[in-house]
Amino acid sequence: MSRVSELPVERVTSPMLQRWKAEHRRIVMTTAYDAVAAHIADPAVDIILVGDSVGNVCLGFENTLPVSMAMMNHHLEAVARTKPRALLVADMPFLSFHLSVEETIRNAGGFLRRGAAAVKLEGGGKRIDMVRALVDCEIPVMGHLGLTPQSVNVMGGFKVQGRKAEEALRLLDDAHRLQEAGCFALVLEGIPAELAARATESLTIPTIGIGAGPDCSGQVLVFHDVLGLTEGHRPKFVRAYADGFQLLHGALSRWAADVRSGAFPGPQESYRLPEGLGDAITNWAPSNPT
Ligand code: KIV
Prior knowledge:
There is one protein chain. It contains twelve helices and eight strands. With about 290 residues, the chain is an alpha/beta fold. It has a single domain, classed as Alpha-Beta Barrel (TIM Barrel). Strands 1-2-3-4-5-6-7-8 form an eight-stranded parallel barrel, surrounded by seven helices. Helix 6 links the parallel strand 4 and strand 5. Helix 5 packs across helix 6 and helix 8 packs parallel to helix 9. The longest helix has 18 residues. The site of 3-methyl-2-oxobutanoic acid has 10 residues, from loops.
């Protein structure tokens, strides 16, 4: 029996999201990098993103740049095996969609063959040709504009984007070019709320904000951030809905204390011999004592 009481049954598809925007139904997206997180997230959200944030959240990298296709495929396969009802989107890592159209299609197509229903890629005008090529191959694409983490070196750090008029106008142009190229949705990250609101109202495709204010068509946060599983600096745009780190650390510490005191395992966690065999074991002696 499921431990989750309310499971929406309809599988989410990329064409549904445009309708939801028109109906003012807000879209919820989070990340999952493994089957455990996917099982927890699936009943609660509409989109599961196997994000390249796996690099800094789980794999100990400073940023997302070292994340490879092999790493993404490994994590995507784990999530896909859970067969989520949420739309499963896989993030194209750095350099997986830059070198040639052919390689971009092969990488994105590989994601779909592994169970993703769509791919996400960062960037605006410079990536339009790749987006078009993917859409031409029947691969649904989610765009990603604003504070795009793969551009950390060009941005000079993880800084809010679109605060200058020229940057803000370029973002609006890029958003419309991505829509025109066939993106079914756009992530808007780390931009002023007013700019995200203007993009959202002027586009027909939904926007999914992260640090982009309340007027996007939906919101995305990293799973570990929502659950308070990450230690250290928490960006302004994150709201943790649990102190997961303390909760899990507390539980593990109680188990460790029980092991040390002998309170774990108890009779209920132990197997017993069938009636009568106890004597045979007690009376046993090694045949070749050393
Ligand atoms: O990789 C990721 O987790 C992302 C989201 C934050 C949008 O790109």
